UniProtKB/TrEMBL annotation, chain A:
It is found in: Cell membrane. PANTHER family: GLUCOSE IMPORT SYSTEM PERMEASE PROTEIN GLCT, TREHALOSE TRANSPORT SYSTEM PERMEASE PROTEIN SUGA. The lineage of its organism: Bacteria, Pseudomonadati, Pseudomonadota, Alphaproteobacteria, Hyphomicrobiales. CDD domains: TM_PBP2. Gene3D superfamilies: MetI-like (1.10.3720.10). It comes from the Bacteria. This is ABC transporter permease. One of its GO terms (biological process) is transmembrane transport. Keywords: Membrane, Transmembrane, Transmembrane helix, Transport. The chain crosses the membrane at residues 12-36, 75-94, 100-121, 157-181, 214-231, 265-286. It comes from Prosthecodimorpha hirschii. The keyword Transmembrane helix applies.
TrEMBL record, chain B:
The lineage of its organism: Bacteria, Pseudomonadati, Pseudomonadota, Alphaproteobacteria, Hyphomicrobiales. One of its GO terms (biological process) is transmembrane transport. This is Sugar ABC transporter permease. It comes from Prosthecodimorpha hirschii. It is a multi-pass membrane protein. Residues 63-251 form the ABC transmembrane type-1 domain.
């Protein structure tokens, strides 16, 4: 269906547009401004051109090395959690009961972690995973006999933040997939049953194609949110032990608010934002193409 | 069949265990937590941690302040997103696709990038440490999200309804309020739920723009200064779960569709 061309629709978008401009463009100009200047305190700024960017993108400098390290850790983190959360979420959605009060109960329980303030997620896992007072930490250390301490062990720290994220966000994928599965008419399943299709065939030919759209949204949201995650790992590990869980946003806040290196932080913010913009664009293009195909599929 | 319920049960246990542990801790006193080893239920059941919170204004005002800015934010976001979403779902106009994409990118912008400039901006306009500062700052990710969700729901309403109403002589504002809004009421509920959710869980911006206003930031402070008052921390944590649990209950029938942004 073709929408009519009507330029005055801009007036309807205007309030939202102005609000987001105030919040996005004005601060972004400040960041750009900082990123090309250097300061020695006392609010005295010097023109530094693209110096910060050159330093940031050159892995041999201290800043550059740090940037690439935390970028690498962040990509690794995003890859791990996507690899766990997407299949697990789909599996859970497939296991959901079809009808009755149990559906409502499952939905409410599953949505609960999503509504927990992010620092409380950190607190919950801090308490849960501590070796002395935490159920999980105690269990692993004293009953399984494996040394597990997220404040001193690199592997333990990574394990904790990954499991925490799986706990926190798998439900998002599960709820999305559940919504997708619900939209499949019963007739499809009946036809499959008549054809004698196996469970696997039903999944790959009926359910998975329907899930493509929602999973795309899910992967986009999860990738973006894991790429800018800050509070939860900060509360649990604070970026440690050492720098082993210092991901991009933690590093950025350390530079900006900890060391008050405004120029470096600003340059890093811009590059960080550009990466996000690029990934966003790829997803958006794919998504609009899938959207455009929909009417043809019926 | 048995495998399916096993998977589901295991997953739900995995979800509830940490929350159970938090609640368990919140009813214990500190000596039991640190000295008596692991106890699966409170041996000396105490409400002391909760009483502390409800009697100390420094604690309970944190919840009130948080709820105020979350409510303000939800109100602002929905009221500017409604007309915008209508425009996106019904018309083509100059730069619409680019504008929509630009909105989307703001939903994805990392708060860590904005923390410092927001501090400067809101100090400059004299809103620092007010509910408005946090409410307005959170619109940067909530307005795009609300537009996205509402646009999905609105596109599900056939355009013939608009046209019929206009032929019947409805003016645009009257049509919008009397006919259109009731039609997408569930969509508005879902969008409001998401605005509530993301404003409620966000901490970095809320903490940067205020002097310890949000409850979550009061929690961090008190817990670390008192040499880790675990019981108190757990009780405060449990109380932050309550508003979320309440709003989930209200939207439980729409929640799955909402997470799919109205696009299934």
């Amino acid at each position: 269906m073709d929408k009519p061309l009507y330029h005055r629709a801009w007036f309807l978008v205007l309030p939202a547009f102005l609000l987001v401009v105030f919040n996005a463009v004005v601060p972004m100009m400040t960041v750009v401004n900082y990123s090309v200047q250097d300061t020695f305190g006392n609010n005295q700024f010097f023109w530094n051109g693209i110096g910060w960017y050159q330093e940031l993108l050159d892995p041999s400098t201290e800043l550059g090395g740090r940037f690439y390290d935390s970028l690498g850790r962040n990509l690794l983190f995003s890859a791990i959690i996507l690899a766990i959360e997407v299949p697990l979420g789909v599996l859970v959605a497939l296991s959901m009961p079809r009808a009755g009060w149990r559906v409502a109960a499952c939905l409410v329980l599953m949505a609960l972690p999503l509504l927990v303030p992010w620092n409380v997620v950190g607190t919950i896992w801090q308490i849960f995973a501590r070796e002395d007072i935490g159920l999980f930490g105690y269990f692993v250390n004293h009953i399984l006999g494996i040394t597990y301490n997220y404040t001193s062990g690199v592997f333990s720290a990574w394990f904790t933040i990954v499991v925490m994220d799986v706990w926190h966000w798998t439900s998002l994928i599960a709820l999305l997939s559940y919504a997708g599965l619900k939209s499949i008419p019963d007739a499809y399943y009946q036809a499959a049953a008549i054809d004698g299709a196996s469970r696997w065939a039903v999944f790959t030919t009926i359910q998975l194609p329907k899930l493509r759209r929602v999973l795309l949204i899910g992967v986009l949201l999860r990738f973006m949110d894991s790429f800018m995650i800050y509070t939860e790992p900060f509360v649990v590990t604070g970026g440690g032990p050492g720098n082993s869980t210092t991901i991009l946003s933690i590093d950025l806040v350390k530079i900006a608010l900890g060391q008050f290196d405004l120029g470096k932080a600003a340059a890093m913010s811009i590059v960080y934002n550009l990466i996000i913009l690029a990934v966003c664009w790829v997803f958006y293009t794919v998504m609009t193409q899938v959207d455009a195909q929909r009417p043809k599929e019926g | 069949m048995r495998l399916r319920s096993l998977i589901l049960t295991l997953y739900l246990v995995f979800l509830t265990l940490p929350i159970y542990w938090l609640m368990n801790m919140s009813f214990k006193n500190n000596s039991e937590i640190t000295n008596q080893g692991l106890t699966l239920y409170p041996r000396e059941f105490t409400l002391k941690n909760y009483i502390n919170i409800f009697t100390d204004p420094a604690w309970y005002m944190g919840y009130v302040d948080s709820l105020i800015y979350v409510a303000l934010n939800t109100l602002i976001s929905i009221s500017v997103a409604l007309p915008a979403a209508y425009a996106f779902s019904r018309y083509r106009f100059l730069g619409d696709k680019h504008l929509f994409f630009w909105f989307l990118t703001n939903r994805m912008a990392p708060p860590a990038v904005f923390a410092l400039p927001f501090f400067n901006l809101y100090s400059a306009v004299g809103l620092f440490d007010t509910h408005w500062a946090v409410a307005l700052a959170h619109t940067i990710f909530n307005v795009p999200l609300a537009i996205w969700i509402l646009e999905g729901f609105m596109s599900g309403v056939p355009r013939e309804i608009d046209e019929t109403a206009f032929i019947d002589g409805y003016s645009f504002p009257r049509f919008f309020v009397k006919i259109f809004v009731p039609l997408i009421a569930s969509g508005i509920g879902v969008a409001a739920f998401f605005c509530f959710m993301f404003s409620w869980v966000e901490l970095l911006l809320a903490r940067t723009l205020t002097n310890n206003m949000p409850i979550s930031s009061i929690m961090t402070r008190t817990a670390s200064s008192a040499g880790m008052d675990w019981g108190q921390l757990a009780a405060a944590g449990v109380l932050t779960l309550v508003p979320g649990a309440l709003v989930i209950w209200f939207v439980r029938n729409y929640i799955a569709k909402g997470f799919a942004l109205g696009r299934v």
